[in-house]
From TrEMBL:
Residues 27-67 form the Cardiolipin synthase N-terminal domain. GO terms for cellular component: plasma membrane. The keyword Heme does not apply. It holds the Pfam family PLDc_N. It is found in: Cell membrane. It comes from Microbacterium hatanonis. It comes from the Bacteria. Keywords: Cell membrane, Membrane, Transmembrane, Transmembrane helix. The chain crosses the membrane at residues 12-35, 47-66. This is Cardiolipin synthase N-terminal domain-containing protein. It is a multi-pass membrane protein. Its main location: membrane.
Length: 132
């Protein structure tokens, strides 16, 4: 027989698990932001950490209300820096050889006997198609 109490108990458990996980995400975001903020002095960081340890839920709520906009700005700034670093890295490791360079390399490989004339023609066609 189906018991509605078991269903409501399970749903209530899922709610509290979700709320706890959401709280942990907020707590870790606040702690990370505290140590990312270079304008805040060490003493103020210590005060925030003290309250995070002894009155965690209220402190997270107050921190998000009082320092939320600055938290968002720091997160966006760090995200932009990470994106720029990734783009620079990709540009640095990407093969930037021109089609002429690729054809010259393929010709030298064919002359040395490493590839056949048919493979050279294939590489040449691919280099010309990528250059266009």
């Amino acid at each position: 027989m189906f018991n509605w109490n078991d269903l409501w108990s399970a749903m209530w458990s899922f709610f509290w698990i979700f709320a706890f996980v959401a709280y942990l995400f907020a707590l870790f975001a606040v702690v990370a932001d505290l140590f990312r903020d270079h304008k805040l002095s060490g003493w103020w960081k210590a005060v925030w950490v003290f309250f995070l340890v002894f009155v965690p839920f209220l402190t997270v709520l107050v921190y998000l209300i009082a320092r939320g906009p600055g938290m968002q700005e720091r997160t966006e700034r760090d995200s932009r820096r990470a994106q720029q670093a990734a783009e620079e890295y990709i540009r640095g490791v990407a093969d930037t050889a021109s089609p002429a360079d690729e054809i010259t390399k393929a010709k030298s490989l064919m002359d040395s006997g490493a590839i056949s004339a048919q493979e050279f023609e294939h590489l040449k066609a691919r280099a010309l198609s990528h250059g266009a």
